[in-house]
């Protein structure tokens, strides 16, 4: 366990500061586009050799300090009983949308070994191929974020259907959250058994909720997952990262999840988070993904400022505040990684 | 000037607390749908008699304490030289998208009297019809929010094109912001001359920016508009409300705009805003629009809590934290208004 990334997750200040990028394996890399070729996104996720290959690309190309499994947070929803497809430009489609009691009832649990064997196989291949280089991060969506896709039937702007269920049928919503939580627990546990050395829980949409609603409808389920991963017998204890996009108003709550690392987006300065939560918290983040369009000079200033703020925390892992965009020139991402290393050495 | 809403804008504690709803004239009202009939949205905006009629509907139906001009923030972009259309379900389309120097250069200023006479005529009709009942709020989009629509060519999720211009071509972006600011100044000034008794500046998308970017690229332009409205000769001095959606991390900045009232969405508890900015600020907000799906009992609890927090501020105007949704039953909106009045009497 002496990978710098894992040491930082455990609360150790590491120099240089470890760095990886959300969606670091992705369309901005020509090498990724070449592997994907004519395959659709889901085929790539479900073909272990290819998924492993694109997972490794940014390690070679950018020099990041961790690999993250190439997959999608929506993968476990298919074996739960939902139709899943991706239409170019329109985002994911989940059908039929989960709206009433009957819809929730028909959703099943999953057995990761038989339902998502390709994910576990990808992890096993990666552990062999990465050994001695960088650690491997597994991941899942958080229950609320997955619930939004299931209830809306895909992406949304207002999340009206999700909030309507939460407000008008709170018991049904809780039942749905409990089902997703059960799936997420076994899914992440299976990833850890297969070899994931850390896991990140992505709560991309929890930031749409006010604090009161988050505490009532979301936090208990995230806590249940984190506690499960920390207590489950026979699995190695690995660091858990919890990332809420747009969660500046939910800092205390993120902390109460008891995850080891709190991910921040670019709207919450690390210095503010340190001020709010104290110096005993490990933060991950938080360059605006679009800041990779800045000139080299101004990019350097931004990175320096984030690193400086990170020095106030217990430990810091550098990352973007959200996934890297397809339009970013790979050289700029590479420059970012080397600037982080250089400026924090 | 003894309308409760205007007194609260000026910092006076008013009982009962005045209340209105963003998008209170809109699709959730059957009466609105009837007036609109087969006309498209833009035709309705551009026909003063009809726009005035739907503006007044919620005053009669809900009993709110202010009317807000029925219009759209994108209206002034058409006379600036952009094609504007609304496709049902897909949102607005602005074309051609503003991407380079040439695009910015071709954008013109506007003369409200000749370019948007229908807006001013709607205001004049409304002032006659509303006199003695409730005051009339005019409005505009804030420059950054308008810039996102112009640069993206419509709505967006990542706002990549806008941020790319801001980061990669900051001078060009500033030029664009300056042009929009000039238009917004004369547009709001014309509304006030025509009779608007308060104005709200909607910064729906500024919340996507970190504080540093907001301060550099957005705040100076908002300040310029507010200062202009306060100093312009020969127009009555009216209260200015500045609303940033998702702006919990920009509270200090919102205050620095020098607007009279700061609008909050449901993610920023008024109590937190009071704690951050002190007791000398007037706040407007901030019930989650989806909370209108709650049971009456729980809705009442939410409203009580918001009113209680509002009592800590210099003054409070009750509102939703964003526009009312088309799916809300009008009776629930009506219930909300009467609960606000009843609980704060």
Question: Care to give the gist of this entry?
Answer:
The structure is a homodimer of 345-residue chains. With 345 residues, chain A is an alpha/beta fold. The first copy, chain A, is 49% helix and 13% strand.
Assembly state of the chains shown: homodimer
Name of the CATH class of chain A: Alpha Beta
User: How many helical elements of chain A?
Assistant: 17
Instruction: Please state the second-level CATH architecture of chain A.
Output: Alpha-Beta Barrel
Order of helices and strands of chain A: HHHHEHEEHHHEHHHEHHEHEHEHEH
**How far is the N terminus from the C terminus of chain A?**
20 Å
By CATH, the topology of chain A is TIM Barrel
Mean pLDDT of chain A: 97
- Taking all Cα atoms into account, the compactness measure Rg of chain A is 19 Å
Q: Which two chains share the most extensive interface?
A: A-B, 34 and 34 residues
Number of domains of chain A: 1
* Major sheet size, sense and barrel closure of chain A: 7 strands, parallel
Coarse morphology of chain A: globular
The tally of beta strands of chain A, per DSSP, is: 9
Helix content of chain A: 40-55%
Strand order of the largest sheet of chain A: 1-4-5-6-7-8-9
Query: How much of the residues of chain A is beta strand, in percent?
Result: 5-15%
Structural class of chain A: alpha/beta
Low-confidence stretches of chain A: none
């Amino acid at each position: 366990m002496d990978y710098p990334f894992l040491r930082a997750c455990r609360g150790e200040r590491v120099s240089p500061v470890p760095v990886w990028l959300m969606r670091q394996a992705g369309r901005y890399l020509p090498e990724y586009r070449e592997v994907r070729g004519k395959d659709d996104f889901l085929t790539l996720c479900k073909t272990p050799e290819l998924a492993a290959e694109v997972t490794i690309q940014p390690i070679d190309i950018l020099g990041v300090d961790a690999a993250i499994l190439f997959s999608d947070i929506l993968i476990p929803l298919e074996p739960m009983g939902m139709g899943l497809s991706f239409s170019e430009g329109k985002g994911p489609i989940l059908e039929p949308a989960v709206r009433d009691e009957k819809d929730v009832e028909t959703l099943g649990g999953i057995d990761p070994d038989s339902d998502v064997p390709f994910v576990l196989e990808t992890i096993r291949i990666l552990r062999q191929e990465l050994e001695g280089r960088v650690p491997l991060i597994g991941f899942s969506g958080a229950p609320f974020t997955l619930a939004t896709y299931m209830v809306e039937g895909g992406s949304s702007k207002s999340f009206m259907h999700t909030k309507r269920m939460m407000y008008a049928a709170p018991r049904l919503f809780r039942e749905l959250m409990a089902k997703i939580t059960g799936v997420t627990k076994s899914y992440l546990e299976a990833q850890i058994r297969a070899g994931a050395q850390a896991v990140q829980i992505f709560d991309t949409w929890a930031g749409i909720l006010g604090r009161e609603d988050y505490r009532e409808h979301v936090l208990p389920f995230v806590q249940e997952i984190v506690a499960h991963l920390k207590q489950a017998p026979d699995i190695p204890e690995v660091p858990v990262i919890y990332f809420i996009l747009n969660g500046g108003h939910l800092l205390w709550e993120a902390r109460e999840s008891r995850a080891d690392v709190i991910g921040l987006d670019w709207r919450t300065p690390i210095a503010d988070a340190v001020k709010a939560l104290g110096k005993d918290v490990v933060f991950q983040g938080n360059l605006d993904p679009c800041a990779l369009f800045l000139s080299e000079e101004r990019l350097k200033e931004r990175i320096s400022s984030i690193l400086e703020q990170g020095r106030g925390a217990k430990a810091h892992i550098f990352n973007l505040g959200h996934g890297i965009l397809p339009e970013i020139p790979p050289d700029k991402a590479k420059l970012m990684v080397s600037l982080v290393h250089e400026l924090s050495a």
